[in-house]
Design a protein that fits this description.
Elements: E1 5-13, H1 20-28, E2 35-36, E3 48-50, H2 63-79, E4 88-93, H3 111-121, E5 129-131, H4 137-150, E6 156-163, H5 167-175, E7 196-197, E8 199-207, E9 213-221, H6 234-243, E10 254-256, H7 263-275, E11 282-284, H8 287-290, H9 297-311, E12 313-314, E13 330-331, E14 336-337, E15 342-349, E16 353-360
Parallel strand pairs: 3-7, 4-5, 4-6, 10-11, 10-15, 11-13
Antiparallel strand pairs: 1-8, 2-3, 6-8, 9-16, 12-14, 15-16
Amino acid sequence: MKDRVACLGFGALTPLGQTASLTYEAVREGKSALRPVAPDSPLGPNGVFSLFEDRSVLDGYSFFDTISIKAASQAVESSGIDPASPRVLFILSTIKGNIESLGSDEKKYSIAESARRIASYFHNPNPPLVVSNACISGLDAILQGRRTLLSGKFDNVVVIGVEVQSRFIASGFNALKTVSSSPCRPFDESRDGLNLGEAAAAIVLGFSEDGWEVADGAVRNDAYHISSPSRTGEGSYKALRYVLESIGTGEISFVNVHGTSTLFNDEMEAVALHRAGLGDVPVNSLKGYFGHTMGAAGVLESIISIFECEDGTVLPTKGFSALGVSRPIRVSASAQPCEGRAFIKLLSGFGGVNGALLFKKGGLS
């Protein structure tokens, strides 16, 4: 079947676990990797982050490259594909790439060079594709992988989402006054900002009648503001409406949203969900477990959402207690049964970018 793009293998490294399965188990147990940084930390005196403790590297590679390679290796191994095949393409999703090397003795690499080094590790002969599209980068990379496969040029795509935190990144979010000094509380009435996190995650895409299908997706830019989301949720609404054209809202198990815990993002998503007719569908955010992982978010959170459905559970939104948005959406406050075999992944980012992906379980028409 050359029109059904499915997820064939998964890999992940997070501060909660060294594999996708271990990360999911930790999340299911309600664990969080969010911790306050030391007062003298270069990331800022009051931030709460999800950071790797073990920062060992492969010989000749940066930490950024190392965790990318390890996550991709897991996904490749579980899928059984040959990563060196000319019919395999690598796609790297990241916002800031190897920027942590700035101000250090580490050799500096551009994102493009990091992507080439990662693909070369697997002896892949093709120039890799880089997707750097603000916070929807991971979602966008999966969508680009799907479109690439449907073009017929490749048989498999390895999508890698990765982000490593640095003083540069933290200072930018601090300047916007969006960083919380406590663990984040998505959609809660007392939310006061986000937490940043590190992660690497990978999905191997290919043609299959089995497994979770990347059924459809859309990216919409409402161009509302460079850093503030649209008050009407225009871009997210339009992306949601596009993917809902092929499926009824009653068939959606849940929507895994961006849910950064900032005042404007959570409000915008609530407005978009309500406008799209999804006000009665369970909604959850995973940011309270491993923070906002930026370029890795779309890949990592898609994997965790697939594991949720396989487990028959909609995970709770950690940190959420009382609804603090203007629209009556169903934020998951505790674990609940996952009914149905489809879910939507929703993301938004700076520059007015918004994206939605529809995932379906094998056998669902």
